[in-house]
Fold:
Amino acid sequence: MSKMHSLPYSTVTPEQTYLNRRALLGGIAGAGLLAATGARAQEVPEFQIKGFDTTETPNSFKEITTYNNFYEFGTGKEDPARYAGSLTTDPWSVEIDGLVSRPGSYGLGDILAKMDIDERIYRFRCVEAWSMVIPWNGFELRQLLELAGVEPSAKYVRFETLYRPEEMPGQKRAILDWPYVEGLRLDEAMHPLTIMATGLYGKTLPNQNGAPLRLVVPWKYGFKSIKSVVKITLMETQPVNTWKAINHREYGFYSNVNPEVDHPRWTQASERRIGGGVFAPRIATIKFNGYEDQVASLYKGMNLSKEY
Ligand SMILES: Nc1nc2c(c(=O)[nH]1)N[C@H]1C(S)=C(S)[C@@H](COP(=O)(O)O)O[C@H]1N2
Ligand SMILES: [Mo]
Structure:
């Protein structure tokens, strides 16, 4: 486990720091990855998962931080990069309550000091049929849940984003039912693929990506990955997530990436990789976003076209 936050960051771009580091470590494709970055994404990426990581070439730092969904700052893809600078992320704490043995307010610094910060290159797919490859830094959510002590009766986890309309201009309008809420079943939350991200490209998480702490669940659609989390509640009953509450015909609780179950407005069979350009061929969407071996067992016996 590498402590990515201790990486020096000076005048080089995050991609340079990151790619050099991976080449040094002899990580995925090593120098091949460096050579490939210039001519990225004209072809459909070769898809493979090694350990936790996809071997696809990551999107650039610029792509990942300028094409975002974060409705607290507006509904345009460029709004978060433009307006999220106003968010104060220090001090920050996360309230953990409900069915836990050590409920309370956990300061971010205290949390980070106890977590193993790791690096994960995940494919990330939005229900709107675009995708990216993102090198996250973060820790496994289960570590944080274990810190609070999950009681045996807990079956679900509910997450809540900060509500602070004076810094989040989108919250002054009733675009969504604020604050943004998401949920996972406990076994999904405890899965080693499920992380709380604290950075990307070895750099502190930019506000537009959900600073200082956001969920990432790589086999689910992007909207499950709730940003700027301030509250985590362990529950016995399934929490009501914002998007399902607004439109349950279009958005379910599970929201697993699944090419067999179309959304009424966007195909789920294929996706457009951000940065590939308008002429780049679409990529076939893969069930559970490529993590079928790791997560299919969680849904054994469920009808995924009903529980979408
Ligand atoms: N609080 C909050 N979290 C959110 C959203 C949001 O509007 N508000 N948008 C979701 C959606 S729809 C997507 S696709 C991802 C986008 O994450 P990214 O901008 O880091 O790529 O964040 C998710 N988390
Ligand atoms: Mo999304």
Observations:
- The radius of gyration is 19 Å.
- Residues 68-72, 126, 161, 180, 209-210, 222-223, 225-228 surround MTE (ligand 1) (CB under 6 Å).
